[in-house]
Amino acid sequence: MIVRPFLSRGWAERRGLRLWHVWIVLPLAFVTAIAIAAGAFFAGWDLLGARELKPERRIDSKTLFDLVKLSFGVVAGAGALVALVVAYRRQRVDEDGALRDATRLHNERFTNAVSQLGDDSAAVRLGGVHALAGLADDAPTRDLRQTCIDVLCAYLRLPYTAEADLPPGDTEARHAYLAQREVRHTIIRIIRDHLRLMPQPPRSWQGHDFDFTDVTFDGGDFAFTTFSRGVVSFDGAKFTGGTVDFRYAEFTGGWLRFNGAEFADGTVDFTGAEVTSGRLRFNSAKFTGGTVNFTDAQFTGGTVDFHDAQFAGGTVDFSHASGTAPAGLPSSGTPLPAGLTLPASW
């Protein structure tokens, strides 16, 4: 597996602080302080009415001394301001250095985890999966977390032979299939667990993008997850067996796409799922076998589309679903394709 490194040098430079050089800032600060002090002195002079040095309007030594004290007080305040700016600058530089150190350590761990994920041994690959999940949890930035998620999704997109396509009687091929299946299902379980968490850092993955384009699914558990913001793509995915469980999942924002997906066998279960916002797309999806269950699903918001979907076999059941009927489904009173069940209210 070839994965681009986390950060290029150009990215790091753009991410770095854009601070003026000290040899520019300090002279400017001192000149500004002197100008402020002079302004304060002459403002005080003006307030005292001494616009000119005339014999009939003299400033006694006490008044002059007070003006001098005021000027030096302003200078001292400006000096304190300069010290504050320097301290703030130092803090920013320290924080940026800490982020660079954390990113460098993250990249080292990332390289090791990806190496494990590409190992021939399924046990080592499982270790790499958990290492990447831990890296995502510890990521110092959102972009670094997204990179870890992208790698896990990329593993699922690798070529995968379904059980039905294995050579008959080939024990070695079956063992390899079972090992690979365990790694893939572990990735799905880890994603599920992180999508069940509240949408706050550090461990929730809600709001991130997940690219399952063209992935072959022979099972997987997304039950009770929340999809909020981000783009989750199942475009072109193939559901070939087992149960892919979306029961009571909540779709509260973002995009969830099954455009062009093929439901050929097994069960995809959306029982009790709730769509309150965002967009759920099944455009041009092919329902050719198995069961897709939307029983008791609630379509209370957002948009759900089945435009150009093909119902050519299997069972698609919307029994007891509530809310607004998804666009693209046959309208009330028209003949339904075999296997498609809609609630009477639609």
In short:
With 346 residues, the protein is α/β, with parallel strands linked by helices.
Mean pLDDT across all amino acids: 84
Calculate the terminal CA-CA distance, rounded to whole Å: 48 Å
User: What is the rounded Rg?
Assistant: 33 Å
Shape: elongated
Keywords: Membrane, Transmembrane, Transmembrane helix
Region (Disordered): 327-346
Transmembrane segments: 20-43, 64-88
Protein name: Pentapeptide repeat-containing protein
Could you explain how this protein is built, in words?
The chain crosses the membrane at residues 20-43, 64-88. Keywords: Membrane, Transmembrane, Transmembrane helix. The protein has helices spanning 9-15, 22-47, 61-117, 122-138, 142-157, 171-195, and strands spanning 210-211, 216-217, 220-221, 226-227, 231-233, 238-245, 250-257, 262-269, 274-281, 286-293, 298-299, 303-305, 310-317, 322-323, 340-341. Residues 1-17 have low confidence and may be disordered. Helix 3 (61-117) packs antiparallel against helix 4. Among the domains are: 9-98, no CATH class; 212-346. With 346 residues, the chain is α/β, with parallel strands linked by helices. Strands 1, 4, 5, 7, 9, 11, 12 and 14 form an eight-stranded parallel beta sheet that branches.
Tags for this model:
transmembrane, membrane, Pentapeptide repeat-containing protein, 346 residues, 43% helix, disordered N terminus, transmembrane helix, alpha/beta, single chain, 15 strands
